[in-house]
Structure prediction request, 368 residues.
Amino acid sequence: MFINLSTRFVQNCAKQTLGNFVRTLSNVQSKPLPSEELADNKKDYRDKNIKVQLLKEMLNLRLIEAASIVSKPKFSKITSNSINKNYNLCLSHKITQARLKQFPEILAEEKLADKIELVKQLPFTLDHTAALLNIPTARLEKLMHEEELSQRIRFLSTFFNVTEKQACAWMATRRFLISLKEEQIKEITELLLRFGLDKNDISKDFWVLKYSKATVENRLKQVQESNAGKVKTWMVRAKPELFENYVKRQSERKSVLGDNSFAEYLCNKLGCTRETAEYIILKLPVLQHKCLIKLNSIIEYLVENGFSTSQICSNPRILLHSLETIKKRMERLKALGTQPDFLSVLTRSQKNFEDKPPCRFKDKLASS
Prediction:
């Protein structure tokens, strides 16, 4: 469906914009703006809102999605009329709305007609190659002249067993895939496959292909030797200190868990049923990623201070706090002459702990 940017459409957008602008100004307490600056702000705000409403209508977007697209620098340099013309131009060349929704910045191209004529020279459907319209004109002309694009599209499509459309989408968002040597892509991919990754894993993190074979192989061997679990692409890219910290945490985790699962660990440590352990994990999934040595220390400290494991199971959120925070709160309450007999006091936010202590200690806490 072609869009006609009618006068009524623009007027309605302008009215809505003016109302929003006035409401925004009324909520801002600042020095009055010079009349020229105020007029410019109104115009910019109105133009932006027209673009937002236009994209919302064209691509069937939510308002927040359209606003997010228009906030990109590329859209500040183009008029709403040009966006409208680009949209109709794309439809006339059978570039689908779905494709434009996936790559909306195509609509902000200043010389879109020229780029379309270039990309049409490729031996593929234009809707499949539309993502390449986002490549800067000078580079696109050079690639077309050297006939690199069609070869690279076929290579990526065949090597990763995906459609030509998907290959073009990758090249538009990860432009180094256009210039990276085929031999390097093959070599690094085959190396990663040998260490247990698959091509789907690699396609989610193509940056790993930019590293040298020696760097990739060295890091993968480190992962294997450290018994740090399943190899992942980020491990190759991670800084040495981050990788070493991960290996250390995995080693500590294995020393605590052994061959048990995290649910079995909770069963043994808290003396609870498997169902209770799984419920705790479901309720607090982030708990699985907590350092198990620290978790051990928290459970042991709570038990030593009179809390039962059943109390911990009833209020597992306490395990998300640091041992240092728990100790400080326990010491504060003990200094007031009391031993808390329920964990909910210790799991409150810092503000609530200070502002809303148990009623029988309120006066003492307030005066301390």
Notes: The two ends are 71 Å apart (CA to CA). The chain has four domains: 1-110, 112-179, 181-257, 287-367. The CA atoms of residues 52 and 70 lie 6 Å apart. Residues 181-257 form one domain.
